[in-house]
Description:
57% helix
Amino acid sequence: MATVPLISSGVAGPLGVLHLPRFWQKVVLSATGNLHAEYPECGAGFDAMVLSALELDQDETLKYLHDTVPTYPEFEKWILDKKGGSLDQAAVDEFNAAARGYNHDDDTRQAILSSAGIEDDGTILDAVHLNQIEDWTEFHASLK
């Protein structure tokens, strides 16, 4: 069964990095053949941003996740091992602020809200919340 990822980009794991749990979920769902077709395993938005912020090589990270399908704590441990035991907190803080402050363009916002049956009154602008709405809409549609 194809699964819509429902972990929000606004969620952080123990390392305090937003979106990292969602990235992990999408890739392990893909690795096991369970990711909903509407979702990229590793996209150019938040996925690329989090890998860049943590200075993780995309190919190496995807290979690790595909080959081992680790638990989330195991994934964070792998990251810490790659980073010598700690993360650059300034880079994490900068990424988290960028993720919280990222807004979709008008067309994307309008399409997401329209699909969900929500009037676009200009109050929902940030990508984190819009992506959640899109996920909930896709999840509900997948039940039919």
